[in-house]
Amino acid sequence: MTKLKLSGVSKAYGATLALRRGDLELETGEVHVLIGANGSGKSTLCKIVAGSVRPDAGEVLLDGQAVTVSGPRAAQALGIGIFYQELSLADHRSVAENICLPDLPRKNGFFVDHEALLEKAGRYIALFETVAGAELNAETTVGDLRADQRQLVEIMKALATEAPILIFDEPTSALDRAQVDRFFEILRDLKEDGRSIVFISHRMDEIFAIGNRVTVIRDGETVGTEAIADTSPEAVIRMMVGEQETLASPRAAPPSHEASSNVALAVESLTGAGFRDVSFAVRRGEILGLGGLHGQGQSALLKALFGAPPARAGQVVLNGQPLRTESPRAAIAQGIAYVSGDRGRDGIISGRPILENVTPIHALRNRLVLARPGPLSEKALPALKALNTKFAGLSHSIGSLSGGNQQKIVIARWLIDKPDILLLDDPTKGIDLSAKADLFALIRRLAEEGLAILLYSSEDAELLNNADRILVFNGGAVSRELSGAERTRYNLYQAAYEAA
């Protein structure tokens, strides 16, 4: 019996179409896996079901009746609970308060019933008592927990809704094997009780261990649904890839992989927060891509190379000399540049003029104590022109620019005094197609001029179209290197989705 049905659901954010056509049928008493590449629209589809995103078009049927999920409270009233990929816990509150937050037990209609709170939370904590750790108890402050324990609390919070429909958006990403096994036992019990579960995961072994059916979303559209028993990991990846398997050919004259004298940066057994035992070399004139699903260690590696924070173990050699990455200041002094896709947090200086935003690295590297706007402007303008940056004047606020032009400012600041290594951490995130084209045209030109570039992108096409080689990350480690004819969408997905 169909419990939930979505037909032709779509959602756009301005010119960005997050979901073109989302279709999903969820049966009573099944675990229905939803799978797709980064940015395919699967999380948007789930947020529409949970009421945190309003669709632009389409129909949602619950038990055969058309419904409007106007918000999270409406979803809760309709019997829909969700585990969000981005944890939504209150760090300064207790485990019990977080678990029961959607529906705190009260007495006298106003005050929280502390005894009932502990009793209710205790039931869900007990489900994981063999794998959660002794320090995870009802009174523990969530901010004091490890990442895996926090994720377990978020799962308990979703379970505590007692909703007939439960959505889990990558719930196992921070869990160990024993915790995953226990969680799957609970899901099987819920399925036996007639609950309906949507499960998003990037691990093929998990998908085939827990799912009854799988629906694939590609480029914002539902492309098919198969029974798990009637398909295979290879067939699922083929559905994700579609007809266009290969998106790009290598650049006409990529640097030789044999010339050791051409190596700009060599990394050996580097380990840090979020990644482990990573080794590679990048050559002058080469664009080395970092691929795989979001959050598999790519950004953490780039930040470690920039000293924010530094790696815990391993060796890095820059131009034949050991690289000291104890801080970003030290990395900059040695010729390392880092561009973040999160320009609001890691890039722009809010409220300040464009000139101040484009010249701080130049001032730091040249130890400028006093700087005059005229000479600084002469230094900044060629870098801004190289990126086709559109601005009224250097004295205007950075906030007067579009997102794409703000990101161009962030990149231009590194081009005034060219670095030896350019680290690009999802640099085109949230900018329009025109700005992306300008950025990648410059990146390729810089590579042709001999700059060594490490590029992480959450968009597979950007890697396949621009990188000479791709290191695919899975579970914090490199699972495969793709070069030449191996640089296909199928190989990229297979390496990203295989069991960690």
From TrEMBL:
UniProt xrefs under PROSITE patterns: ABC_TRANSPORTER_1 (PS00211), ABC_TRANSPORTER_2 (PS50893)
A Gene Ontology molecular function term of the record: ATP hydrolysis activity
Pfam families noted in UniProt: ABC_tran
UniProt cross-references to SMART domains, sorted A to Z: AAA
Record keyword Repeat present: yes
Cited Gene3D superfamilies: P-loop containing nucleotide triphosphate hydrolases
UniProt keyword list: ATP-binding, Nucleotide-binding, Repeat, Sugar transport, Transport
Segments forming domain ABC transporter: 4-244, 258-500
Superkingdom per UniProt: Bacteria
Family: Belongs to the ABC transporter superfamily.
Name listed for the protein in its UniProt record: Monosaccharide ABC transporter ATP-binding protein, CUT2 family
Organism whose genome encodes this protein: Nitratireductor aquibiodomus
